[in-house]
Amino acid sequence: MNIAIVGGETYCKEILDKTSLDSKEGEVTGRIVAVADPDPQSPGMLLAAQLGLITVKDYHALYDPRYDINLIIVLTPEQNVLEDILDTRPPPIRILAYHVFEFFWKAIGLEERKLRERTKEMETILNGIQDFILVITPDRGIAEVNDAFLTKMGYSREQVIGRKCYEVYQRTDEECNGKDLACPLSEVIRNKMQCRQVRTAPGANGESRYFEVDIYPIWEKDGKISKFIHISRDITERRREQEEITRRLEEMVEERTKQLKETHNKLLHQDKMASLGKLSASVVHEINNPIAGILNLTMLMKRIIQEGPVKQNEIDQFTQYLSLMETETRRTGRIVSNLLAFSRQSRMEPKRLNLNNRIEQILFLNSNLFKISGVKVEKNLEPDLPDLIGSEDQLQQVFMNIVSNAVEAMEINGGGVLSIETKHLSTAGKILASFADTGKGIPEEDLSRLFEPFFTTKKKGKGVGLGLSVAYGIIQEHGGSIQVESKLGEGTTFLVKLPLEPSPDPHREHGDANG
Question: At 25, which CATH number?
Answer without folding.
Answer: 3.40.50.720
